[in-house]
Prior knowledge:
By secondary structure, chain A is α+β, with helices and mostly antiparallel strands. Chain A is built from 17 helices and 14 strands. Chain A has helices at residues 5-11, 62-74, 185-203, 243-262, 308-316, 322-333, 337-345, 349-357, 362-380, 384-387, 390-401, 407-418, 424-431, 439-452, 454-461, 468-478, 485-495; strands at 12-23, 78-79, 86-89, 99-102, 109-120, 123-138, 142-146, 158-162, 169-175, 215-225, 235-240, 270-274, 281-286, 296-297. A nine-stranded mixed beta sheet of chain A has the order 2-5-6-9-1-10-11-12-13. Chain A has a three-stranded antiparallel beta sheet with strand order 4-3-14, with no helix packed on it. Chain A has a two-stranded antiparallel ribbon with strand order 7-8. In chain B, helix 7 runs antiparallel to helix 8 (247-253). Chain B has one domain (5-300, 381-489): Amidase signature (AS) enzymes (Alpha-Beta Complex), CATH 3.90.1300. Chain B is globular. In chain B, 39% of the residues lie in helices and 12% in strands. In chain B, strands 1-3-2-4-6-5-10-11-9-7-8 form an eleven-stranded mixed beta sheet, with helices on both faces.
Amino acid sequence: MSLNYDQAIEKYEPTLGLEVHVELNTKSKMFCGCATEFGAEPNTQTCPVCLGLPGALPVVNKTAIESSILIGLALNCSIAPFSRFARKNYFYPDMPKNFQTSQYDEPICINGFLDVEIESDEGNKVFRIEIERVHMEEDTGKSLHVGGSTGRIHGAEYSLLDYNRAGIPLVEIVTKIVPNTGKYAPQVARAYVAALRDILRGLKVSDVKMEQGSLRCDVNLSLAPSGSGELGTRSETKNVNSLRSVETAVSGEIVRQANRLQSGEKIVQETRHFLEESGETRPGRSKEKAEDYRYFPEPDLVPVVPDNKWIDELRKTLPEKPADRRKRLQSEWSVPEKEMTAMVNAELLDTVEETVKLGADPTKARSWWLGEISRIANERDVVATELISVTAVAQIINLINQGELTDKLARQVVDGVIAGEGTPAEVISKRGLKVVSDDGALMKAIEDAIAAQPDTAERVRGGNIPAAGALIGAVMKATGGQADAAKVRELLLKHLGQ
Amino acid sequence: MSIRNSAAEMAEALAKKEISAVELANQHYAQIEAVDKDVHAFLHLDKAGALAQAESIDKKRAAGEKLSPLAGVPLALKDVLVQKGVPTTCGSKMLEGWRPPYDATVVAKLKDAGIVILGKTNMDEFAMGSSTENSAYGPTHNPWDLTRIPGGSGGGSAAALAAFEAPLAIGTDTGGSIRQPAAVTATVGVKPTYGGVSRYGLVAFSSSLDQAGPCARTVLDTAMLHQSIAGFDPKDSTSINHAVPDVVAAAKKKDVKGLKIGIVKQLSGAGYQKGVENKFNDAVAELVKLGAEIVEVSCPNFEYALAAYYLIAPSECSSNLARFDSMRFGIRIGDDGSKGAEEVMNLTRQVGFGREVKRRIILGTYALSSGYYDAYYGSAQKVRTLIKRDFDAAFEKCDVLVSPTAPTTAFKIGEKSEDPLAMYLNDIATIPVNLAGVGGMSLPCGLADEDNLPVGFQIMSPAMKDDRMYLVGGALEAALLSKWGKPILDFAPRLAGSK
Lengths: 498, 499
């Protein structure tokens, strides 16, 4: 009988380790001046340096170093007074030099921590994740293996190579082992990656788009019998590219490993690939015979020796910490804790804040983003901010506040904007959705109604007030239900001398 | 004006419009045509490119434009520096047919200076060797004796100078590849301070040791070329952001009175040919006559220099040469649709690299392997530090250090090609300079009595004090010239067909 998650976690204690690769958003690559824009035509953002042509030499991108130091500072790390690049040697067609220039035993930042909060059975609980190192490296090119069934290099008919990504600066953030998370391991892992992403976004050093690969996570996980205090053999799951996947990768590995251990099998130290569709992992290469990368200091680069003045200047530019900001916004907006958490969990805090900055009311901004828009986003399995822009939502909310739109009409405007009919103003005009509060327009409708039903009008003039209902109905019909019925009644009666 | 003149004299004749750059280039091409079938200094001639450059210089001169001192003077370029659109092979089959899409910084500077690049010269494959026998395109022959090696790896550049195929040449020196060829061909060659000349576009053998430098037939010509190619390059992180010392003024000064010259005890004795030591001592005596003060210094760690070098250089080369995988440039073997990428890479490297290159890649791969790194690469780096300290201590006592450049005169082609260790020993006197990153010059100091072949005199300067080599070299060259009565190359047998 196989163990489920609850049974697995009862018998075994998980130990986590997380390695997060972040693509920096510098304008140029790590070691050359090539552009880094995502989605350009293959091999158009290359030069002798990032193609590894004979004779070409690397020069370190200063902005990438600055970004790395900022990340280190935000994660409470020490900044190394002396750090170096090394060469990691291995052959692969998408690696132009057949070595990756990366930091190895002398990284730029060491020994930091990040506190993350999760909802536990006993209320919110804080876990401190210790950071071992933050180091810089360059990305490889991209291979596209064509033909064959697996999409991998073995069995492919041929492969296409795009070196646009080769040399894009990456920062790798490696945690120390994270013990004692117990059954919360999946949430802790997710909360850590989410918190890290918030920090990186706040620092504006990366686009942190997991779906585009600008933030990628490897999950290391091992199990040991509960209470044994031992450390088991770990697996390393790669390609975990969404927050939800981080959570499922951890819980999935816990169940898989627990069942192996339960049936007396050994855990193999190996790289596993996360399968986005099934949430399962499949084995990659075994690490039992550790690959020998023959690291040695990169002789083409000089050591990175940041002076304290520079570090202090960078420290001064650090933005507010995400946790502090959350507290501040909660009080500014007078939002209950629960709603704040909801916004954070939905990853819409930034979006709501931006909407508020554009003049929208905080309560309405929150309810529109978390309500109607999130509902549509969930239906379509997309991210809310991809459906509609912050500007559009702010405009709609402001129109509601000005009485130009009712909530009902606003929903139609949102639909129209999402359907690509244009800006809120354009949708309103195309669909004719405006609340008809313009007296002139109403008066015309009223006069038309009176002209169409002269007898009814006469009865009203004669004091039969309830008879006005038929006229009001006609006006409402004529204005497509966009008129304020009370207003119509007031104008009508006045017009008929009542 | 003849091809036997110095580059400085050619430059003067050009400035006076006694000869045009096109005529001068053509004279050299005629000489190449006449003698290079025997010497084989060149791998590729870029006649069209060179003549176009010469013509443009002539036009500028006619228009009265201000030109660089060496504008219009021809030069031979070692085939390890990339030149846009011109085949660059590094003496290897691996790069056969490859035309680089960019210019090395040195090449760009040569072009800017109006220097006319005649073609690319032969070399040991990827600059690994001391005889130019490791070229995939056949050896270069020493103009002094065609059965002998011209030194290496820059044998092509040195032989081109000695055979009057070019008055200037560019070499690169990782363990002596400029200086040892200069020594055995009676020409002048300088390995500048590491970082003094940009390495951008120099196809790397050993990044922490490689250095491009000037080669010529006189100390002044070498200085003028040095001045043209040196200086900070933002594209090379190891380039020194510091003013280039005035080497031309130093070469012209010819005054060594009171200068302290250190003789390195460890760079003589066992393994050094008698005639080499004699000529070296004679040259030291000349310096004494000129008023220099001689000091004997000891550099005890030089003993380990060769061993350290043959760990560091192969280690770096094993990584630097990994990029030759047939994916983006160079030859590709076995791509018939039936083989995987890895197999094609393997086959290409099997066919593309020669024996010495493979030997060093294997040595370096081993030395960097986990479990061996500390014992080999790590220890070698420590030795390197000790050698630097030996230099520091020696330079506290004296202004320059001197030694024979190579322990022997030119040996016969084929004599040592089956014995790599014997071959490696050729660089015993030149390697410490590379390990420490200091400057080194070789200039001719006579012919050995026993074989009548050239002997090289090495001058070593502290880092960024390259002018001191030129100061001593210029003075010694003048003294020897007046002693001999004519330039040393005039003692060489005349090549068949030579102009």
